[in-house]
Amino acid sequence: MTILIPSYEPDERLLTLIHHLKEETGVASILIVDDGSGEQYKAIFESAAEAGCTVLRHTVNKGKGSALKTGFDYVRQHGGHDGVVCADSDGQHLPEDILKITDAVRKNRNHIVLGSRQFTGKVPLRSRFGNSATRMVYSLATGKPIRDTQTGLRGYSSDMLDWLCEVPGDRFEYEMNMLLEAPKAGYDFVEVPIETVYLEDNKSSHFRPLTDSARIYFPFLKFCTSSGFAAVLDFVLLFLFQWLTSSLLIAVIGARVISSIFNFTMNRRFVFNDGQAISIKKSLPRYFSLVVVIMISNYALLYLFHESIKIPLFAAKLMTEALLFAFSYLVQRRFVY
């Protein structure tokens, strides 16, 4: 089993982790990727190499996702058949927890093994909030609840290496993209409880709250934007068609057909396109089957809220769209595109 540690501007905790892994747990294969840390940190990586680690280097900082891909590609080319466990270099992953993940990888082939922190005790607010937010977004996106979506302690079978090198993303968003892409690729998850360790209020983290959070949430934000424009179009057409025809049914159908054509085009080209061509023959029938389901649900909910309960049409429309939004995203990501 290869222990892969992406590292950017590390301190002595990296060497302490290496010592514990080699001397106390007997781990032999440790691969470290220096993600452009610079000359100031050269001595630490040289000490790691002297301790028996393989050290790969980026000349400039490319991001955690890029460092992980460099490591995965190295293992793939050098015949790592047992699997890979990824750990962070800042001392927040205990050697005994890393061993837990290695054992779980051997027992659960074709599964992504996640070291799941329990978030008990003193946890920095930004870490607690960040994980809660990404957990909610991931659950909405896939319908699969995961306790710790931001864990850096993860394990993979060797037959996943080709796929891991193809997952989009070069920085922190790579790990979220991996979780989003895994169900479509046929990989399920195993969560293994680990200790929650934050040293010095997590000051060593290179995670940039605004920039990196935007990257993580970008797939969902693109869908929100596309759906937002489609919803505005649907709103305008709904009121226009009702004014022209005085029929709620005709207004709902007409508005939905036109806005759905717009939404399909946007989602196919910009939202769910990960650099690969999406077949119209395959996605179009699935999308408009979903449109029919949502249209029926849309009319039923509007009729319930507006006609039966007598909620004003504007408020009824808002409630209806909110209820159908998450369902639409889940189905489109998993089955349409």
CATH topology of the largest domain: Spore Coat Polysaccharide Biosynthesis Protein SpsA, Chain A
What is the number of E strands? 7
- Mean pLDDT across the residues is 82
The end-to-end span amounts to 35 Å
What percent of residues are in strands? Answer: 5-15%
At the fourth CATH level, what is the homologous superfamily of the largest domain?
Spore Coat Polysaccharide Biosynthesis Protein SpsA, Chain A
Parts with pLDDT < 50 across at least 5 consecutive residues: none
The global form is elongated
Main sheet overview = 7 strands, mixed
SSE arrangement:
Elements lengths: L1 E6 L4 H13 L4 E7 L6 H9 L3 E5 L5 H14 L6 E3 L8 H13 L3 E7 L7 H18 L11 E3 L4 H6 L6 H13 L2 E7 L14 H37 L2 H24 L8 H29 L4 H24 L1
Parallel strand pairs: 1-2, 1-4, 2-3, 5-7
Antiparallel strand pairs: 4-6, 5-6
Task: Please characterize this protein's 3D structure.
By secondary structure, the protein is an alpha/beta fold. The chain folds into 2 domains: 206 residues, Alpha-Beta Complex (Spore Coat Polysaccharide Biosynthesis Protein SpsA, Chain A); 120 residues, no CATH class. The protein has 11 helices and 7 strands. A 7-stranded mixed beta sheet has the order 3-2-1-4-6-5-7, sandwiched between helices. Helix 1 links the parallel strand 1 and strand 2. The longest helix has 37 residues. The mean pLDDT is 82.
Short description:
By secondary structure, this protein is an alpha/beta fold.
List keywords for this structure.
337 residues; alpha/beta; Spore Coat Polysaccharide Biosynthesis Protein SpsA, Chain A; 2 domains; 7-stranded mixed β-sheet; 11 helices; 7 strands; transmembrane; Glyco_trans_2-like; transmembrane helix; membrane
